[in-house]
Specification:
With about 425 residues, this protein is α+β, with helices and mostly antiparallel strands. About 15% of the residues lie in helices and about 30% in strands. It has a domain of about 120 residues: OmpA-like domain (60s Ribosomal Protein L30, Chain: A, 2-Layer Sandwich), CATH 3.30.1330. It is built from six helices and 23 strands. The protein has a 16-stranded antiparallel sheet with strand order 4-5-6-7-8-9-10-11-12-13-14-15-16-17-18-19, with no helix packed on it. Strand 14 and strand 15 form a beta hairpin.
């Protein structure tokens, strides 16, 4: 079977992005005006005649009137109009939601680097009994697994929960839709409560949602802050600008830099105070602030479908033809295998010897037993701590035909049949 390495989770960080439905900063953060905005091209303001006629009897110019009114209006909006509290988009949650595959890794990933050894999940005819000659995976055991490879580890409880670590990254799946993602190197942290609520933080952003329509957003780079309660009310601040929507049609806009203050009483009028004075104008009720979305639940970790691990060594790796004496050049291969078994914490193992159909049954049976025992002896001598036993099957369990369909010899098939299997049962 094709073997894959444990995925580099950290590479996913390049995909992190957070969208915000704001168009600029300060007074210009407000995206667009309402249908009540002027269409005369005077910066969105609606010019009106001056309150006091000039002593000369002349009428004020359009530009003078527009300048006077502009001090009573938010740029891009009609006089007395309060911009809406902007919504914020949920951050990119793929770092957590797309990570569920990491909980079902190739259970042999920590062993694939051993030269001369083919490693694959084991298939068992019954729990704990290797079905020799198959590379398929069968659902057995409790579905759990623990793997370790350098700075990476996977713990799968088999019930949907688990934990993955790789370098600075840690991912926890609670198995009930909830989970967490943290990266100490980048400062990214995602908490998904599984009920729609959650939070996202990184070096600059902090986003929280309560799962019922409310949430908050802060950006330390832009100085923007948004709070949405989920009941139609909310606030927005950025620099000198503050917007408050009470959720009942009333609200306020304040810009301490320009001195503009608008109070909408929610009954059809708004009191405006600016550097030019104060005035009351007709004003529509503020629409309610829309709700924030919720965090989708994450998928539970899938169980690992294997009854253990089988390591297959072709006879040519260890022995000369017809011999049961381990060659000197194969000693390092078995030493590597013993080291890997110890690092994996294998408590037991079974060594099975197999031959092709050349020679008679009695000879092949004896040879397979001797080869299996020779591997056990070498592993023990190399410090393997697992309890090991040796069994020979002779030519009785081929994994490939020893002969072609026309009765001719099949050298490739016979080569596959001459093998030693080291089976480590799933704990």
């Amino acid at each position: 079977m094709q073997r894959t390495r444990f995925p580099r989770i950290s590479s996913l960080l390049l995909a992190t992005a957070v969208a915000l439905s704001l168009t600029a900063s300060g007074c210009a953060i407000i995206s667009g005006g309402s249908s009540g905005a002027s269409q005369d091209g005077q910066d969105g303001a609606a010019p009106t005649p001056s309150a006091a006629a000039p002593s000369s009897g002349s009428t004020p110019s359009a530009s003078a009137s527009a300048t006077a009114d502009s001090t009573f209006a938010v740029p891009g909006y009609a006089v007395g109009e309060i911009p809406p509290v902007p919504l914020f988009a949920l951050p990119n949650l793929s770092l957590l939601s797309a990570s569920t595959g990491a909980f079902t890794p190739d259970v042999t990933s920590s062993l694939t680097s051993v030269p001369g050894i083919t490693v694959s999940p084991a298939r068992c005819d019954e729990p704990g009994v290797l079905a020799s000659g198959s590379t398929s995976t069968v659902v057995t055991g409790d579905g759990g697994v623990v793997t370790s490879d350098g700075d990476s580890s996977v713990v799968n409880d088999g019930n949907g929960a688990g934990m993955v670590t790789q370098g600075s990254v840690s991912i926890v799946n609670d198995g009930n839709g909830a989970g967490t993602y943290t990266d100490t190197a980048t400062g990214v942290s995602i908490i998904n409560s599984g009920n729609g609520a959650g939070s996202y933080t990184d070096a600059h952003l902090s986003v929280t949602v309560d799962g019922t329509g409310g949430g908050s957003y802060t950006n330390s780079q832009t100085g923007e802050s948004i709070t949405i309660t989920g009941d139609g009310s909310g606030t927005y601040t950025a620099g000198t600008v503050s917007i408050v929507n009470d959720g009942n049609g009333a609200g306020t806009y304040t810009d301490t830099a320009t001195g503009l203050n608008i109070i909408n009483d929610g009954t059809g009028s708004a009191l405006i105070t600016s550097a030019s004075g104060s005035r009351t104008v007709n004003a529509e009720k503020l629409p309610a602030v829309e709700n924030v979305g919720s965090f989708p639940p994450i998928d539970a970790a899938k169980p690992v479908e294997s009854c253990g691990t089988v390591m297959t060594l072709q006879d040519g790796v260890l022995f000369d033809f017809g011999s049961s004496q381990v060659r000197s050049d194969a000693a390092q291969t078995l030493k590597n295998l013993a080291d890997v078994m110890n690092r994996a914490g294998a408590s037991s193992g079974h060594v099975y010897g197999h031959t092709d159909s050349v020679s008679d049954d009695s000879f092949n049976q004896t040879l397979s037993e001797q080869r299996a025992q020779a591997v056990v002896d070498a592993l023990v001598a190399d410090g393997a701590t697992a309890s090991l036993d040796a069994t020979g099957y002779g030519e009785s369990q081929p994994v490939a035909p020893n002969e072609n369909s026309d009765g001719s010899d099949n050298p490739a098939g016979r080569q596959l049949n001459r093998r030693v299997e080291v089976f480590i049962p799933a704990s």
